[in-house]
Specification:
The chain has helices spanning about 55-70, 105-115, 140-150, 155-175, 220-225, 230-244, and strands at about 15, 20-25, 30-35, 40, 45-50, 80-85, 85-90, 95, 95-105, 120-130, 140, 180-190, 195-200, 205-210. The protein contains 6 helices and 14 strands. Keywords: ATP-binding, Ligase, Nucleotide-binding, Purine biosynthesis.
């Protein structure tokens, strides 16, 4: 949703800058502004570039999909759209886990397990990665999560349940818009005693294939020099906006 500009607190100090976003404090200690950059990276930052309009499109797509999953019962950090490429969000303490849900074999799953790319999985595969750039975000399991003190068993149960709920909501929703949700990455944060879906859901964090052609409409176009990256992101937004 969009709030009147007068109701959106202005940016304060910069709290964090990552590869794709900048997080700013506001006068409200419970709220932050998240600016989506046009910068693009791949392969743990070894490849860098700029995708025109990416920040604006990802902010809109993320806000739209957060609202979709919220309607399905998944709590998120989103408060409002705060500008062309900014969101107003609840301030959370990010849990250093990347939760990946896979519906179709692609990327590292094919390489690690010797599976054929494009193979539809009988049930979703959920993977956990330790969010540490200096270690290359390694694949870990629940025992590692306990060893590292990242989350309690109860928190991890909740995180995994929410991730699978996002998949159950978005997979048919996107299919109705002729998009195959191949796989996606989620991040979660603590807000008091609550765990909220945070970060973003966008073509930066999802593999999305056109249902008719199998063409990727996501960051794989940047990763593998396929061209038409900005057009692919714009096409995803067009389909979401057109169907509501």
């Amino acid at each position: 949703m969009a709030l009147p500009q007068a109701q959106i607190p202005p940016r304060g100090e910069r709290l964090y800058e990552g590869k794709a976003k900048v997080v700013y404090a506001t006068a409200d200690p419970g709220l932050v502004r998240i600016y989506f950059k046009d910068d693009a990276t791949a392969f743990d930052g070894r490849k860098r570039g700029t995708i025109g309009e990416k920040g604006r499109l990802n902010a809109r797509i993320a806000a739209h999909l957060f609202r979709v999953v919220e309607a399905g019962g998944v709590p998120t950090h989103l408060v409002a759209v705060a500008g062309e490429q900014e969101l107003l969000a609840r301030r959370v303490a990010i849990i250093p886990l990347e939760v990946v849900v896979r519906n179709v074999v692609a990327g590292s799953l094919a390489r690690r397990l010797g599976l054929a790319p494009g193979q539809v999985l009988e049930e979703p595969v959920l993977e956990l990665y330790y969010k540490r750039d200096d270690l290359g975000d390694p694949l870990i399991n629940r025992a590692h999560v306990r060893l590292l003190g990242i989350a309690t068993a109860e928190e991890l149960d909740r995180i995994e349940a929410l991730a699978l709920a996002v998949n159950r909501i978005l997979r048919p929703y996107l299919a109705e818009r002729d998009l195959i949700l191949v796989d996606f990455k989620l991040e979660f944060g603590r807000s008091g005693d609550d765990i909220l879906l945070a970060d973003e859901i966008s073509p930066d964090t999802c593999r999305l294939w056109d249902r008719s052609t199998g063409e990727p409409l996501d960051k794989d176009r940047f990763r593998h020099d396929l061209g038409g990256v900005a057009d692919a992101y714009a096409e995803v937004w067009r389909r979401l906006e057109a169907r509501g």
